[in-house]
Amino acid sequence: MTRVLVVDDEPQIRRALQINLGARGFQVATAADGASALHAAKHGHPELIILDLGLPDMDGIDVLAAIRSHSSVPVIVLSARADSTDKVEALDTGADDYVTKPFGMDELLARLRAAVRRASVAADSEPVVVTESFTVDLAAKQVLRDGSVVHLTPTEWGMLEMLVRRRGTLVTRSELLREVWGPGYRTETHYLRVYLAQLRRKLEPIPAKPRHLITDARMGYRFQV
Amino acid sequence: MTRVLVVDDEPQIRRALQINLGARGFQVATAADGASALHAAKHGHPELIILDLGLPDMDGIDVLAAIRSHSSVPVIVLSARADSTDKVEALDTGADDYVTKPFGMDELLARLRAAVRRASVAADSEPVVVTESFTVDLAAKQVLRDGSVVHLTPTEWGMLEMLVRRRGTLVTRSELLREVWGPGYRTETHYLRVYLAQLRRKLEPIPAKPRHLITDARMGYRFQV
DNA sequence: GTGCGCCGTTAGGAACCCGTCAAGATCGGT
DNA sequence: ACCGATCTTGACGGGTTCCTAACGGCGCAC
Q1: Considering the entire predicted model, what is its pTM?
Q2: A85 touches chain B (CB under 8 A)
Q3: What is the pLDDT of residues A105-157, one digit of tens each?
Q4: Distance between CA atoms of residues A3 and A47, nearest Å
């Protein structure tokens, strides 16, 4: 859940943003003045800040500068002033965007999505599955064992990948055949035996007594962490 | 020197931006239509794109989508349309900012600086990758070996860059082809073999026994630090 | 014990893919 | 129009992967 801090002295704007952002799955915190905004920015660890420049206690630009001095969290500035000078000052102080009031909620939300999207480039990583004897890195398509990579052929990797993605659950032979060899290979189970043996030889400490690549007789195979 | 690509069909806007950006130390390339914009975006490796949506040959949104399909370069959209719908569409298609015409040059430049600043922060994660035999500087787009720069052609750099950015993970042939040659080159793997060999000859101490530019037969390539 | 079905294992040849070199085509700058 | 650099294309030797076949082991029913 993405945390957003809304800083504005007008209660109806705080309320409107809280409702609209909350409805779209954001977790909203609010602040009505510069001092509490800085406190919330530091301790609430928001992933995005919407900052109105017209605050009662401090100059909004100073609030922005104070945030930037210790954080690179995306900040979208709101302001009633449409002057080019104000925009330039805010943007050069470190704002990511500048929206003038009155603003369209749709546009603000789109700009917010754009800012969040930019900030979360490196957030989506595929899982790495670790067992006591080897490690499967799904993103890298790579298996590590004793610190060095185990070389797998595409077919071997295709089988292992499917088993690992559905780890703990049974994968039937026909599912494996469809996935790795393509549709039309529903019945020919000989491939599976050959390649599973290969995987066990490469991955299991004692291939004859597999601990992770388990056979369920007459059903299929299962990957046990 | 920051490279900026300006895409607009109005000559006076191209000219105004070229002058103003050039005076501030940017290196400006221009394009007047969608097709040449895509070509320049792909081969000129700009660090920022200013894209007018009103192009003669293609829908600007489609141009944006095409750029986004293979690059995360910051894009500032220009448009004569101030509709909220248009802004939302552009921003959700991957635009970093949306500026309506007529625009103030100061504001545009400030928004451009903000976009470049963000991109450089994001790229600062680790722009230099060092191996035991050579060094790849992603920010400078430069490769060093034994203290001197290794000259790479644009295509060679394109492949190396993608492999290094995803170092450790397998990059499939079709991914490389899409990134470097563009969509539509999904199957022609001959290029890859030729250019990989070229890279190995220039970078690997023993090209026949590569230690960093690794082949995974029938799958793709990977860069190992 | 013996036959049968199912699974695991190994090995070798065929098919396919990769690396390499070199020549022709294309592009960009003068 | 020329020239150099870059990109594309073709051909071939060597290597990897895949498929197939054969055999051994295990459990079960009779």
Answers
A1: 0.64
A2: yes
A3: 999 999 999 999 888 754 556 778 999 899 999 989 999 998 899 999 999 99
A4: 5
